Structure formats: C-alpha cells, structure tokens
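User: I'll paste a sequence; please echo it back and then give the predicted structure.

Assistant: Echoing your sequence first, then the prediction.
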Amino acid sequence: MNIDLKMAWRNIWRNPRRTLLTVLAISFACVLLVFMLSFQFGSYATMINSSVRIHTGHLQIQARGYHQDPKMRLVVQDPGAVGSMLDRISGVEAYTFRANAFALVSSAERTYGVLITGIDPNREARVSTLAHTIQQGRYLSDQPAGDGMPHALIGRLLARNLKVTVGDELTVLGQGRDGSVAATVLKISGIFASGQDAMDRSTLQMPLKAFQSVFSMAGAVHEVVIMGKDLADVPAVKTAIARKLPGIANDPPLVVLDWTQLMPGLPQAIHMDLISGAVFYLILIMVVAFSILNTFLMSILERTHEFGIMMAMGAKPGRLTRLVLAESLSMTLVGILAGVVIGCLVTWYFMAHGINLGSSSEILRQFGIPSIFYPHLTPLTATAGPGAVFVITLLAALYPALRIRKLRPVEAIGHA
C-alpha cells in the first residue's frame, strides 16, 4: 500500500470518536438515500400500474383526434385486424376492445348523464382490475339475463345516486353512431368500487356486443386497450405498434397513445414529487458535507504544528494536501460502503414484505392505489444517492485541504 494511504488510514483513527461519528453520518445518509430512492421509484411503478389497470391500460389505439374530442364517429373500424396485428407483437401481454357513449340513464326515481362503456368481459378481465372490484353481485357476462335484457355494471356512487341495487333495471337513452336513437333496458348484475370516485360516480359498463347493437356501431369500437408485459417494455411496444398501424385502413387513421398521453396528470405529479424529493435529498447531503467540512477543519487546526514540522523536514504542501484528501477519501468510502450495504439489506426486506401506509390508505383509495407499497431496488437507486454523497463530501474536504498550501513552516510550528 502507498505510504501516504497508510498514513491517511492511521491519521483518521487518531480521534476514533470523531471519525466514527462522521462515518456514521455518511452511512446514515447513504442508507436513507438508497431506501428512499428505491421507495420513491417503487411507489411510482405502483401508482402507474394501479392507474393503468383500473382504466386506461399501458397503451391505447384510437382513431386520430378521439382522445381530444371523443365523438361517436371516430372509431376503430376493424378491431379484428388490430387484434391480429397485436398478436404478433411479443411485448403485448393482453388487449381488449371498448366502445364509449354518453347517455341518459334512468331508474324508477332518478335520471343521470353517464358514460356508458361497452366491454368484452373475457378480454377486459385480463387487462383491467375491474372484475376484482365488484362489491355486490357478479361480473358481466355476454349472455343476457333470463328475461333477455343485457347485464350492466355500475359504480357504487352511481348506484347510490340512482337509488338502485343488484337486480334493478335501468333505462338508457342516447344517440347511436349513425345518428339514430339508442335506447335499451339494462339489468344491474354488479356494483363495482374502483377507488376512483369520478369513475364510480359516472360510469356504467355493459357487454360490448350489446353496446354495438344498441348504438349502431356496426362492429366498430373506440379504443383498443393494451397491457405490456412490463412497464419498461411500453416504449418498445409503442414503437412496434406505430410501425404497423399504417397498414390498417381506417378513416381517420389510427394512432397509438401511451399512458403518459392518456393520463397527463400522473407524470406531472411524479415530476413534482421528484423535484420535492430532490430538494430533501440535497439538504440531507449538504448536512453530511458540513459534517465532513467541520471534521477536517478541526483536524487541520489541531495538526497545524505537525504540518509545520513536516514541511520543515521537506514535505511539500502538495503532498500534505494529498494526504488530507486521502484521509477524506478513506473516511467517505468506509461510510458509503457501509451505508450502501445496509441500505440494500433494508430495502430488500421491505421489497419482500411491503410497507403498509396505514391511515393514508383511504386517501390513496381515491386514486385506485393500494395501501401497501414495495420499494424497487435498482443499480440507479443503489448508487445515485451514495454517488452524490461521495462527490459532495470530497468537494467539502477540498477547502480545509487547500488551506494547508497557505501554511508557513515557522508560523505553523509556533501554532499552539
């Protein structure tokens, strides 16, 4: 080992209490940064997957302009051709077809304007968590009720507003794709609670085949909803779909939108949270940096006499500066390595067991987010925080180290 490194390692343990406190401060910062970054990115994945599973999916294929202005005539005219294309894309886990219409829905006592969505019950169950949110009754079936009426699912808040329950009938009145009057009677087979009040208050779902018949869709749909095998696969899947869409005839042409375009508020919320998190992490790192700065300022003041003697014996100021920086480097690396190891172990534990947010679960439920979060440890979350600590602590050690260059041997030797 280089003689300077041996001296640096010896010197940092001349005051073991101060060294241990500094190393513990660095370790604590690294543990907190590894865990919090992993928790933050894990919570984003949970929020995204929960949100897309409730309604939008990772991707959607629509007619151009439908997302901005959802008119009945803007349809995917040949969903079968789109489905055949998706079957050939490896990153697609599942997909389903949906059609939407705004209509008046009446019970015996009240009438409300709602969004009616036609879904394929079997395909929808592979894309959406809707089937697991049924509070009363049962999930949709393509088969009509015993009296020939189509089934319907409604949100719990809509059921409360309409004063209906499972088995009650609803009258639907709207406009078909061709401008004709769309009217039918539906029988409530189930009441769902998605956790999103806006959806539970204004959404009714019915079998897609019945919807296409009532609203004169001629086999068309408005959305092809797609789930990727993994959130990280979404950009590649979107690119593959975008390359193949021009081969499917449609008027207007088809486009593919990802979850960031379908739910622009969610990436904006994530971006704001990242900014607020970065401010907190910066404050934490600066506290550690000042701890390092204080440690080495005290060390240099205490050892001024020693440095003066070394300089009088021929040691160059540059060598003493390197020695102090080596001490800083040794102390920082010990703290960072210990912090990364402990931080990864703590994160792995919670990756297996999850973190129950307890009293916050009711607030999260409003956004369809589960109350148990799982951190997501990656090379980025394990190294980004400790890397920032390493850089900033070394920069903090530069000031006291460079002060040595201003020392004069005679004055330093006379320093008490």
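The radius of gyration is 32 Å. The chain has a mean pLDDT of 83.
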